[in-house]
Amino acid sequence: MKPRRISDDVDGDSSVMKTCCCCMDVRLGTIVLGFCHLLIHIAGVVVLTQMLLHPELYEERYFETYGTTPRSADNSVALAIAFCSFLITVLLIYGAITRQPSYLLPFFCLQVFDFCVNLLGAVGAISYIPELKLMLKNNPNFPLGEAVDKMDMRTLMMTVVVVSVTILSIKAYFIGCVWSCYKILVNYRVKQATSAFLFHVHSDENETQNLLPNYEDAVKDTPNESPPPYTSN
């Protein structure tokens, strides 16, 4: 029976992606994904910081969109969340570069949470199509308000379903990328630890063999002397 290799758990697992985005290595793809998220979080932190320091610059647009003025408490909470997401993304990039899989788990959990929130939002949007149509039509910042107003309910529902499925599929794909990178890095760490262990075992065996002489040398080194004669008291 052929012995099972350590890498068989990952190499033989069809659920683990070796490449992502058609041609990119999954580890490199995870790093690129982290940098893309990092740019988005940096932009969010900059905008939220500016909203806290100069709220008058955003009051008019915020009132036109939401019908209220921005509150500093809400902006502070949003800034704290954006900063935490920024740190989690930095951990992802650091873990992928240094091949430490444990640093990928916070970002993976954040991805799963974001997917669940978007799934609930998609279900809510599909369930309340008339309210969604009214909200999009009356939103001055939405460029397709007139086109939405001309759609019937069935067409609008199909459009919302297609858009929601597309967004959720993209998010699920990137979740799979990060999870595949995590499993590959775990396998890499296990192989490293096993190689180090086998190296130490072989080193100890060689040292033991060097300390103990072989049989021929032991016989040569032993003087050929007869035992003392037997004497009776």
Task: Walk me through the structure.
By secondary structure, the chain is mostly helical. It is 74% helix and 2% strand. It contains nine helices and two strands; from the N terminus they run H-E-E-H-H-H-H-H-H-H-H. The longest helix has 59 residues, at 153-211.
SSE layout:
Blueprint: H1 8-11, E1 19-20, E2 24-25, H2 26-53, H3 59-66, H4 72-98, H5 105-127, H6 129-138, H7 145-150, H8 153-211, H9 215-221
Antiparallel strand pairs: 1-2
Helix pairs in contact: 2-4, 2-8, 4-5, 5-8
Find the structural class using helix and strand composition.
mainly alpha
Q: Helix content range of the residues, please?
A: over 70%
Major sheet size, sense and barrel closure: 2 strands, antiparallel
What is the residue-averaged pLDDT?
A: 77
What is the rounded distance between the termini?
Answer: 66 Å
Q: Nearest-angstrom radius of gyration?
A: 33 Å
Strand content: under 5%
Global geometry: elongated
Q: Give the H and E element order.
A: HEEHHHHHHHH
In the predicted model, the low-confidence regions spanning at least 5 consecutive residues are 1-8
Number of helices: 9
Number of strands: 2
User: Strands of the largest sheet, in order across it?
Assistant: 1-2
